[in-house]
Each structure stands twice: as structure tokens, then as C-alpha cells.
Amino acid sequence: MSLFGHDVLLIGVMAILAGCGLIYEYLLSHYAGRVLGSVESAIYAMIGTMIVAMGIGAFLARWFKDPFTAFAWLESLIALLGMSSILIIASIIALTYTLPHTLSSLYNLPPDSLLDGRPLQQLQEFARFLPYIFGLILGILIGMEIPLIARIRQQVYGRFLENNAGTIYGADYIGAGVGAAIWVMIMLALPIMQAAAWTALFNIVAGLIFLWRYHPYVRFARLLLVCHILLLGVFTVILLNGTAWMKDLSNVLYKDKVIYSESTKYQHVVITERLSRTQATPINDLFLNGRLQFSSVDEQIYHTMLVYPAMLASNRHDKVLIIGGGDGLALRDVLKWPVQNATLIDLDGQLLSLFGLQGQAFEARPEITSKLVQLNQNALNSSRAEVIVADAFLEVESMLDRGEQFDTIIIDLPDPNHPDLNKLYSDYFYNHVRQLLAPDGALAIQSTSPYHAKSAFISIAKTVKQAGFEHVEQYQQNIPSFGQWGWTIATRTGQSASARIASAEHLPVASNWVSKKYLLSSFAFPNRFFDNNKDIEVNRLGSGVLYDYYRQAWQTEDELYKN
């Protein structure tokens, strides 16, 4: 082979491996975000960990005297760890969560007695940080690639190469760029284990190409060939079974029986089911990215408190806008009122399809959808409902351009637990929403827990006020599945929402749960609850203030429970 041929092969292999390395980094970051809950922090921490580890690996590469043999073995290890590390992490996490039950059964403890001592909590906490440990190991191995292949290239040429490092790093950067593009365009849409397996296949193929061309320089070449063949077998097994195994392992983390578990383009959706002696039908809970969104046993309380105050405070009910609420439950309660048209905007078409929206290009399990449609009373397909699958941030701007206006607006988004959601809780977004609201209308916003995340709760109200609403109030109620929960309600002009509710003679739409007196009582808060209001900041677009308040609150809460 000519020197040019050697260069094409070595630089090509380096570019492929750089792309694989970057995808492994993203895969572990993505999974760490799911496991640890704080997505942004987990991603940044993982990337930082792996960059430092690659630096360590570059230093350690000098210990290997035979770069050909070291590089061949290195690719085998990276491929094996790359496609199996997430599965190993999930298995260990699942083991730590099932261990208390196993020990309770082993020692024949009563069913209501569960071992949850400090050692078991520490074991679970350690398991949750395993992504960083595997990231460190994988980063060290990836960091060895550039120094080793640079030495191989120099030995092939038989002389010192002045631009050797520049050439190798150039291939590395370009390969990483291609890897990033593949991640965004292809890998994000795949189940995480399939993405890991396909990435590892490129590592295996690159290793086989290297072994084929340079086997005379590689010790134990035959053994390495057998290892690569075995790795192809592992790849096949993980590709075919990895996703199912991950589902089974993830399901261990939920207390109740998991009847549905799928990842959409935007979130991981889990539905659980349990039987209760006090309920005639099974109880279903919805989790998005591991966080409870509703429980069928008490969701009526939450959705009544979200919908009724805003509807009662609005002068008319002809046109209603719901932002979020892809489960159709808020829409169900809105349609109990004399509404001519209710528009719902949600980003996740797959979630909407799961909850019964017809005409979507997604397959949902009929038996699951049937349960959910019964819960939301098929609201998503009502003749009075219009469902728009879009980013609400952009769709609201389009509505303003079209001159649309609504009598009531209800925002039923998940908690601000991800940076991507932060913009939908910003002063910029609320200002656009204000312009969509009729002057005599009312806006209601799901506003997280005033008890567990007080600063985040108050920040939402201050942000709405900053957006130009004349009257901004907050109210709260206890939801058994969530604990104390809160909402923000605002009006553009005239009386405040609570004053409008107080002046109403009766509820135009009967409710089994709320009364006028009950609604007004929810506006009461503990003494001095708002005393430090002035210290809490407005969530401006791009600031991330609300996300930080929310993350800090729940991290503190977790630490309190652990102690």
C-alpha cells in the first residue's frame, strides 16, 4: 500500500472513531439527564467529565510501547463499553431499587415493612452517578486514540512528520462534526440502546479494517479477530433485545405495574396501573421523563382547579386556548362549559395520539388508548375542539399575526424542569399570551408547588405581572398525588380574578368537587408567605432564572429526604 493509501485508511479510521466518540458522549449525557433528573446539569457535567478523561487518556497512551497492538485492543474495548455501558448502568440501578424488596422477602418481613436504611440509600445514590464513572472510563479510552494513531502513522512513514498532529486532529474534528450531525438527524429518533449498538458497529468495523491492514504488526492478531467476531455477536443481541431489556429495567423504578413505556421525539412516556379496594376501576398514572403528571384517582381535583377559576373569571366563554395539556383532561373540563371553540396546542403528536387524537401518523396501543380516551371523554376529537401539533412558542406568534383573540387562556405545561421549557415561562411569552387574551378574559397557569418550590412559584407570578397583566394572583390546593400545588391567575383589565369569582352568583357549570366558597378559600396563603417577594427575580427570556429556582428547590428537597 502506498503512503497515500495508508493516510486515507488511518485518517478515515480516525474520523470514524471521532464521530463514534462524540455520539457515546451524547448518549451517556442523554441517559445521565434521565437518571439524575436535572438534564442541563447532567449534560454539562458529563461532557466536562469526558473531556477531562480524554486528556488523561492522552497522557496514559505513552505507556504503551506497541501502538499497533494497543490501538487494536483499544477499539475492541471502546466498542464493548460503548454499546453496553448504558445497559450495565440500568441493570445496577434496577438492582439497587429491587434490593430492599429482595431483602425483605429473604428475611420474611411483613409486606408493609421495607428496608430503606442509610446504606441502601447510599447504594442507590452511587448507582445514579454511574453514568459519570462509565463516562470517565470511556473518555480515558477515547483520549488514547489520537496519540496512538499519530505514532502509528509516523511509524508507517518511517520518519518524523512535521504536520502529523495537525492532520490527525483535523480528521478528529471533522469526524466529530459528522458524528454530531448523525446524532441530531438519526440517533435522537432511535431508542437509546439501538443508537448505542449502531455506533459500536462503526467502531467494530473500523477495528476490523485496521486489523486487516496491519495484522502483521499486531500481536495476538488472531485473538483480536475472534474478539471482533464476538463483538459482532454482542452487537446483534443488543440491537435485537436491548430496547426491550431497557424497558424492563426502567420499569423496576416505578412502584406500580408499567403498562406502557415509550420514548417520543420529545420525552419518555410511562403509564402505570394499580388496583385499589376503594376504586372500582384500576388507577392509572402518567409519568413524563420519570415525573408524575397525573393520577387518575385525583386528576379531577387538579384539572378542576386549573380550569374553573379562569372560566368563572372570564366574561365570555366562546373561544378558549389551552397551551399544553396533551392528555386532553383540561380540554375535557373546558368543554363542559358553553364553549364554541377550544384550541389546544401541544408539541408532542405521539402523546396526543396515545390519548386518542385521530389522524396522527403514530401507532398507539389500542387497549391503552381506550383507557385514556375514557378518562378524557374523547375530548381531543370533539367537534368543538381544534388540536394543533406545534411549538406553542412559535404558534402563539403566528396567532398574533392572524389577529386571533381568546376569552380564556389556560397554560397546562409540565413544570419548568428543563431549559427548553424555560422560554414558555418567560416574560416574553406571557406578553404575547396577554395580547391574545380578550380584555375581559382570564389567564390560568399551572405553577408548580408553592410548598416544595416556593421561589419558582412566586417567580411565575412576578413574570406574568412583568408581562403587563393588571391583576396577578395565585392560589393553591392539595392534590393527594402531588401534595400542595399552585396556580397563577391573571386578568388584563377591570377586576381581579378573585373579585370576579366573588361577584358570581353561582357556578354556571356544576362541579362535584368545587364551589364558589371553596375556590375563594384557595386564594389564602400562610401568614408572611410572600414576605420575601422582592428578592425573587422575573424569568426573562434566555435568563434561566425559573429553571434554576426549580432545580435548586427540588435538589434541596431530595437532600432533606435523604437526611
TrEMBL record:
InterPro entries: PABS (IPR030374), SAM-dependent_MTases_sf (IPR029063), Spermi_synthase (IPR001045). Residues 243-492 form the PABS domain. The chain crosses the membrane at residues 7-27, 42-64, 76-99, 129-150, 171-189, 195-212, 224-246. The active site is at D412 (proton acceptor). Pathway: Amine and polyamine biosynthesis; spermidine biosynthesis; spermidine from putrescine: step 1/1. This is Polyamine aminopropyltransferase. Belongs to the spermidine/spermine synthase family. It is found in: Cell membrane. The gene is speE. It is an enzyme of class 2 (transferase). Its EC number is 2.5.1.16. Gene3D superfamilies: Vaccinia Virus protein VP39 (3.40.50.150). SUPFAM superfamilies: S-adenosyl-L-methionine-dependent methyltransferases. One of its GO terms (cellular component) is plasma membrane. Catalyzes the irreversible transfer of a propylamine group from the amino donor S-adenosylmethioninamine (decarboxy-AdoMet) to putrescine (1,4-diaminobutane) to yield spermidine. The lineage of its organism: Bacteria, Pseudomonadati, Pseudomonadota, Gammaproteobacteria, Alteromonadales. Its main location: membrane. Spermidine binds at H303, D327. HAMAP family: Spermidine_synth. Homodimer or homotetramer. Keywords: Cell membrane, Membrane, Polyamine biosynthesis, Spermidine biosynthesis, Transferase, Transmembrane, Transmembrane helix. GO terms for molecular function: spermidine synthase activity. It is a multi-pass membrane protein. S-methyl-5'-thioadenosine binds at Q267, D346, D391, A392, P419. GO terms for biological process: spermidine biosynthetic process.
